[in-house]
Amino acid sequence: MYLHQWVRSAIGKYGCVFFIALLIHCGGKTETPAIDDPHDPGVVTIEPESGNDLYGLILDDGGQPVQGVVVSDGYTCVQTDEEGVYQLKRNANARFVFYVTPADYAINVETSSRNIPSFYKPINAAAGAAVRADFQLTKLPRKESDFTLFCIGDPQVTNQGEVTRFQQETINDLKMTLSTLSTPAYGLSMGDVVGDQQGLLNSMKNILGSTSMPVFTTIGNHDKFSSAPAPRTGDFFSNIYGPLNYSFNRGDVHFICLDNVVFTDHTNYTGAFSEEQLTWLEQDLSYVPKDKMIILYYHIPIRGANMANKDKLLKLFEGYAEVHFMSGHTHYNQNYIHTSVSPHIYEHIHGAACGAWWRSTINGDGTPNGYAVYRVTGNTITEWYYKATNYDKDFQIRLHWGDASFGGQYGYFSYSLPGNTLVANVWNADDEWVIEVYEDGVKTGNMAPAAVNRDAWSLGYHIGVLNRNPANYSQLCTHLYTYAPENPRADIKVLATDRFGNVYEQHQLTTDFNAARSY
């Protein structure tokens, strides 16, 4: 029996007289503050079982123990007991101890002005030394069955000017979207917070934390550092942002963050999941009922990749109500469905907030700089859309003619299609979108996926005008559609209906680079 349990039992049995006598017997002092001070972890003396050297207490804001909270060192998962106590044998490589925020408790944040989640404590003791870490949780007034999720791809800032653009363009736009919501909101940053500039990590943390929602972060390849020739690691990033692998709960959703960037030397990397990660993940999921939705987020996309332990990872999510993967890295937008498991897993590959590395206002596939917004109800995502920075949320389509030539003094690019072919770039489309063409107000047909997979308009600006390296600025584009109008001279309108029934319209054709240069 823990000390506070014995004292409470004695008070309940013998009343306040016993408690006063106890204090007198102890000289009016105890090793810990009085039992009615719930915020001091010294209230409880914990004697862990033999072999366990990482332990602590989790109380709520009323000083009551919270049972069933999952706690981990990143290698092993345990739960708090009825007294709110957890204990485990920590891994010698563990750098943090963290808890998995339960769905009915608030996300703790660093400060009221820096909305960065605070759910962990560093482990600074020598291997084998006992470590105690206590946490306090705040009960929510009600379960968050409905909430909004924001996903921000690659800010990848390399200098203060780009930091300013991210703040004034992306974050200010995001704050405007937040101001329209009536639900709780949470954010995920998909990695590459910086572009190989470790000195900017702190200022970016301040900016990410400046909104009204907590923003969680995963690590990207450009967020890892080392002294050459050693392989880059996430140690410096972790000193600022915390654990690289962790999880939390909101409503009927279990969120998991994994670092899937592995450097083989100082410059070369690959996407992979280690056996240690999967062992931890399997333990983490053992506490998650199958009727929950899973949202896994990481940096490098899994789709189509021969990634280490990919199949093992996918199988871990079989049987859950709904599963979504969130990633970034590519600087293009793509929706991909993994069909090898049940349920099918929807992977959302997010366009970058920085677009084509802040050289323009678009990504390499023509997707505008921006972020994704997801509406969650219960254990399903009921709607999502891509929000282009500084545009209305209904801006989802750009139109061109198939024989148009785009470029400048460094070259020209075309879709190489007949002149009477209409090309639509519908950057958030998937197989369930229906894209219709109207001529002079009358529907004449549906657009079909294009045979081409590069956006000539984006290539023309980034390579033909800006003289950027084609190897880096020729991103894949999986969301081009074509149609041959019956009358190319007609008043043409395109309507795109997404899988949720939302209808987006475009009737203007883009023939210059004004929208790529500035907003």
Notes on the protein architecture:
- This protein is of the alpha+beta class and 519 residues long.
- The protein has 3 domains: 3-94 and 118-137, Immunoglobulin-like; 146-388, Purple Acid Phosphatase, chain A, domain 2 (4-Layer Sandwich), CATH 3.60.21.10; 398-517, no CATH class.
- It contains 9 helices and 33 strands.
- A 6-stranded mixed beta sheet has the order 14-15-18-19-21-20, with no helix packed on it. A 5-stranded mixed beta sheet has the order 13-12-11-22-23, with helices on one face.
- Strand 14 and strand 15 (253-257) form a beta hairpin.
- The longest helix is centred in the N-terminal third of the chain and has 19 residues, at 160-178.
- The protein starts with a helix and ends with a helix.
- Residues 61-137 form the Calcineurin-like phosphoesterase N-terminal domain.
- InterPro entries: Calcineurin-like_PHP (IPR004843), CarboxyPept-like_regulatory (IPR008969), Metallo-depent_PP-like (IPR029052), Metallophos_C (IPR032288), Metallophos_N (IPR032285), STPP_CPPED1 (IPR051918).
- Residues 347-504 form the Calcineurin-like phosphoesterase C-terminal domain.
- Residues 152-332 form the Calcineurin-like phosphoesterase domain.
- This is Calcineurin-like phosphoesterase.
